[in-house]
Design goal:
Elements (H helix, E strand, L loop, with lengths): L1 H11 L1 E3 L5 E2 L5 E2 L1 E3 L2 H4 L2 H15 L6 E5 L4 H13 L5 E5 L12 E2 L7 E9 L3 H12 L3 E10 L4 H6 L5 E6 H13 L9
Parallel strand pairs: 5-6, 5-8, 8-9, 9-10
Antiparallel strand pairs: 1-4, 2-3, 6-7
Helix pairs in contact: 1-3, 1-7, 3-4
Amino acid sequence: MKQELIEILCRKSFKYSNEPIFKLVSGKTSCFYVNCKPTTLSSRGMFLTGHLIFEAIKSCQAHGVGGLTFGADPMAVATAFVSEIQKFPLKAFSIRKEKKSHGISQWIEGDMQPGEKVVILDDVATTGGSTIKAIERAQSEGLQVVKVVILVDRQEGGLENIQQYVSDTIAIISREELLNHYRKMKSGDQSKTGDL
């Protein structure tokens, strides 16, 4: 499943250039860019993502999975769906970017209760800043963060930064794995531009 997800990510979500032309959230520029949403919102990508995350977290006795909207949302829903099929139900939740200004003022959307154990998800980690924000907001709502799962680690220190907040932090796929597969794809497909 992992290899198939890498394949889909390379086709739908991964961009590479010999020059650093992609501007990141941090303001830095990079030779590669990963936008997981075309993958995690595709039917097969969602299926694979949900299964891989569920396998990675099923032993940690969590009650729910979620993260900062919007990147984590399709991953959380896919994982919750798989958990029900596997007879190990987990709730999905979403963490707002801005606190709700009407009704009950809260960061979390979903059926989560204070004291419940949760896994924080994120689609890509560069510095880890957005994931850390999700951890802090979940904790401020009384949730116990027991694990963090990143779909793609850019291997730029983000995973290590997150581990300072939640020691049990893992990535499903690394930049190195994506880049290796991308190079193999491009070397076998000379008709496309942007070959490495």
